[in-house]
Design goal:
The protein is an alpha/beta fold and 374 residues long. It has 14 helices and 10 strands. The protein binds NADP nicotinamide-adenine-dinucleotide phosphate and zinc ion.
């Protein structure tokens, strides 16, 4: 048996965990940079908790709130310049995957002079500002991964900076912050987390440990999916504390899974839908995942059955029905677009990471089955 497991992030999950465990941040410096999106960090209560916690510890802070969904390369260079100007000693990212990923890149670029063409090459000095992350969506697991995923206009897709030095020092998980999530974001992010756990099982890098975490994550998340419904306008007061906590826990576990395994063709294909058609990240994965699992089942039925069993369903049809109910009408693309997306997705690193490696034709077939082709 070979085990190779590395998870250096201190994960603390409880109500009011930031206030209760604020002293942990003291060792990272006296001046923090808080990185957020436009509104949600403030609206969900996380920003006021962290600023109070920092004040209690005698730590001063500046706020950089210019990160938008699917963060651009320009925005993280801008954030890093801000961090240098303010002489920030550590970075706190609050939000969904977008501000958390941006916080990681800012922590790297604040102390390393990397040109844009060097950003994704993986050749970094062992230096970044310490990173503290606070998820306000239950989906990406970025709070426990060494990845920062940015929109890459040169490659016309999303690409990741990957380095162990991007593992956050601390992840504070307080499910109260997910209370304000609109139902659509709750659904899309839950599906993203589910996709991470399932894809982790389908990679060549899956291990006993990653599979154990993946199965626990899939079980927890699929139990919660039954309570989600796109017809509910807002999840506030409709999702119980128990469900919000399970989703956040399942999402964190799935993050630990992909920190070890990486993702598969599902994410590569999803990135095309996000880049070219502006489809939300989690939704994009959810559109692709059922057909991708059918493809796996054709070649490795035992592997697909393990996933179905963890998801608590008896058949591929039952699995797909979960996604049909939650995602509604599928996006339309032309044949030409589909061929272009398949060509781009086929170039991605994670294609080779899959236990059953799809051909370009397989990818075209999966796109065709997953979307409405005009
Ligand atoms: P997001 O882009 O971070 O946020 C989506 C929307 O949700 C934003 O409008 C945001 O508002 C809002 N929001 C966030 N928290 C909220 C809350 N508690 N209440 C109300 N609204 C809230 O979405 P995401 O799905 O979490 O992250 C997607 C990104 O993560 C993608 O770029 C993806 O590539 C990346 N990702 C990274 C990893 C990794 O390992 N690093 C893994 C998977 C995905 P504000 O703009 O106001 O904050
Ligand atoms: Zn994802």
């Amino acid at each position: 048996m070979i085990i190779n497991f590395f998870m250096p992030t201190k994960v603390i999950m409880s109500e009011e965990c930031i206030i209760k465990h604020a002293d942990l941040m003291k060792e990272y410096g006296k001046k923090a940079l808080i990185v957020t999106g436009a509104n949600s960090a403030n609206n969900c209560g996380a920003l006021s908790d962290i600023t109070l916690a920092l004040q209690n510890q005698g730590i001063t802070y500046d706020i950089y709130d210019r990160i938008r969904s699917n963060p651009s390369i320009a925005s993280v260079y801008d954030g890093a310049a801000f961090a240098r100007e303010k002489e920030s000693e550590f970075v706190i990212g609050i939000g969904g995957g977008s501000p958390m990923d941006a916080a990681k890149a800012i922590a790297l670029l604040a102390v390393q002079d990397l040109k844009e063409e060097e950003l994704f090459l993986g050749k970094y000095d062992n230096l970044a500002l310490p990173i503290v992350l606070i998820p306000t969506t239950a989906g990406t697991g970025s709070e426990v991964t060494p990845y920062s995923i940015l929109t890459n206009d040169i490659k016309q897709t999303k690409t990741s900076i990957q380095a162990p030095l991007l593992f956050p020092k601390i992840a504070y998980l307080d499910a109260r912050y997910t209370k304000s999530l609109p139902m659509t974001v709750t659904i899309n992010t839950a599906i993203d987390a589910l996709s991470h756990a399932i894809e982790g099982m389908l990679t060549i890098r899956a291990t006993y440990v990653s599979n154990a975490l993946a199965i626990e994550s899939i079980e927890r998340i699929t139990q919660c999916l039954r309570s989600l419904s796109p017809s509910k306008v807002n999840s506030e007061n409709q999702l119980s504390k128990d469900i919000r906590e399970k989703l956040l826990y399942g999402s964190m576990l799935a993050g630990v899974v992909i920190a070890h395994t990486g993702t598969t063709a599902v994410h590569s294909m999803g990135y095309c839908l996000t880049y070219f058609k502006n489809v939300d990240h989690g939704r994009a994965n959810g559109l692709i995942l059922p057909s991708f699992l059918r493809f796996i089942a054709k070649h490795d039925i035992e592997l697909a059955k393990k996933v179905l069993s963890a998801a608590g369903v008896a058949s591929m049809d039952e699995f797909e029905a979960i996604f049909l109910r939650l995602l509604g009408d599928r996006e339309q693309i032309t044949v030409k677009e589909m061929e272009r997306f398949a060509a781009i997705a086929f170039q991605a690193k994670n294609i080779m990471n899959t236990k059953v490696i799809p051909t370009k034709e397989d990818i075209e077939n999966i796109f065709t089955r997953s979307l409405q082709i005009l």
